[in-house]
Amino acid sequence: MALTDTQTHRIDLKLVAEMVQPETRVLDVGCGDGALLALLAETRKVDARGIELSREGVADCVARGLSVIQGDADTDLADYPDDSFDYVILSQTIQATRNPRLVLEQMLRIGRRAIVSFPNFGHWRMRAQVFFQGRMPVTEALPYSWWDTPNIHFCTIRDFVALCDLVGAEKERAVALDAAGGKVGVNAPWWFWNLFGAQAVFLLKRG
Amino acid sequence: MSDLSPSLADPLKEANEPSSLVARFGPEAPLLMDCGVVLDRWQIAYQTYGTLNAGKSNAILVCHALTGDQYVASRNPVTGKGGWWTAMIGPGKPIDTERFFIICANVIGGCTGTTGPASTNPETGKPWGLSFPVVTIRDMVRAQAALVDRLGIETLFCVAGGSMGGMQVLQWAASYPARVFSALPLATGAKHSAQNIAFHEVGRQAVMADPDWRQGRYLEEGTRPAKGLSVARMGAHITYLSEQALHRKFGRKLQDREAPTFSFDADFQVESYLRHQGLSFVERFDANSYLYVTRAMDYFDLAADHDGVLARAFAGTKTRFCVASFTSDWLFPTADSRAIVHALNAAGASVSFVELESDKGHDAFLLDEPNLFATTRGFLSAAARARGL
């Protein structure tokens, strides 16, 4: 069965953290309450920075001792100089941005590497809901109705791969997780991932 | 003179002989001012709270705003009122006097014991008045640095302040980066805007238009430009509030009457409130000091001191910053704080920023704002861990 939102998120965070080299400079875009940054600061000894849209999230982060600024991924990444960070992370946020392409380009500009994790809208359960019920999918991991969702730019794994090609990003690593949080067959083709991956995590660099 | 009750201190005496602590400096430690003048006999009045630890690593310098003073968390001897930031500073408060050693000093150009226009010029034996050199935010910070030296403190754990106090925080971080472990600039900007200079100019003109101002020599001539200073304060006070706060507090409510009087009495509560603010201000503040300190804010433009690039003011800084603004502050709007954050990011500095929701306007940083307290507490606790406190 599908995991709850927090459980799924936790596996996703661990996977992202594994991709980050120790003692590097990291920017987490849309860092929420700072769970990933705190994990990275603790286990990877990184210089952890964040951007978060919500006041509550920023307040939680500051109280945790993290350097986090209130800001918007769509507009505020432009303020950072080139190569400011070793990694720029976008964890479960790309689908909520107004201009995902621009955000990804900015991430690759200000970071030497970008890490993007997102829910796969091409997963078979999503497809099944649209196909059999004729309704926009609502799952435990993505519990919003179409009219109240903050997620305005859903994509599938294949869509994201196409965007990476469009902006000239090189895929260093990619991992897909099934609904139970296990890794989907490492050597499987994209169509297989796109059908059975509930989440995907990509490690990218400028091509 | 004013009819102050006997238990309260005389503001004129306070300018030279403050009730607080005072550090006096002579020709061995002159104050070099931006305008080129060297003050070789000057003093800085200050208060401290809490205990300095053995390693002298727990000192927080609090910088006061335009009309503030050193009595940040204790009774002001002139007004008899409690400290101006007791919501923030005290035992167990976000700036915890049981943990930290807090220093707050009156600014150069002020009137509560640090050398300023109301002080006696040692050369002439008369009040400085307008012969006092024009001061800048950097002059204020230089004077504070001399005090911090005198106290034997090398590095301040934190420099904190709002509004003009926040300008001093930024100047500290730019002038003495190695001496500032963390910085908390609140509701402030890296420069004074044209609109803010304009408001200040109206206030200064109100003071100078008062015939009792006597070209700045009122202390010698035994008058006080109370009307002019009061009007200046009334105008400025509006800028510290917000439309919502004024509406919530007063609306169009009438003051002690059922109907308008068809006169120019204070019919409306908001008028009565402003008149009271103006009148109580003149009892504690020197009119010339108001001219000088407003001027210092007007001249502040940190980027201009660094070839127009604010990020250069913070190049290579190791200081940890926490910047906060308030949604309803139209004197130092969030855009001003964002400009600071932008520069700090460009300089690769460790910076947090939050825009806090409040309808209380610019003054919110002085008031009971739980979100500000939580942010301050979290930031200082994390910085204290990093400093090993």
Main attributes of the structure:
heterodimer; A: 207 residues; alpha/beta; Rossmann fold; seven-stranded mixed β-sheet; 8 helices; 7 strands; globular; B: 389 residues; Rna Polymerase Sigma Factor, Chain: A; 2 domains; eight-stranded mixed β-sheet; two-stranded antiparallel ribbon; 12 helices; 12 strands; 15% strand
- Would you report the number of β strands of chain A? 7
Rg from Cα of chain B: 20 Å
How does the overall form of chain B come out from the CA principal axes?
globular
Number of strands of chain B: 12
* Class per helix and strand makeup of chain A: alpha/beta
Mean pLDDT of chain B: 96
Give the CATH architecture of the largest domain in chain B. 3-Layer(aba) Sandwich
pLDDT < 50 runs, ≥5 residues of chain A: 1-8
CATH-derived architecture of chain A: 3-Layer(aba) Sandwich
- The neighbouring-strand order within the major sheet of chain A is 3-2-1-4-5-7-6
- Number of helical stretches of at least 4 residues of chain A: 8
How is the main sheet of chain A built? 7 strands, mixed
- What is the string of helix and strand elements of chain A? HEHEHEHEHEHHEHE
Strand/helix succession of chain B: HEEEEEEEEHEHEHHHHHHHEHEH
User: Structural class, from helix and strand content of chain B?
Assistant: alpha/beta
Rg of Cα set of chain A: 16 Å
Separation, N- and C-terminal Cα atoms of chain B? 49 Å
Active site (chain B): 163 (nucleophile), 329, 362
GO molecular function (chain B): homoserine O-acetyltransferase activity
InterPro entries (chain B): AB_hydrolase_1, AB_hydrolase_fold, HAT_MetX-like
Keywords (chain B): Acyltransferase, Amino-acid biosynthesis, Cytoplasm, Methionine biosynthesis, Transferase
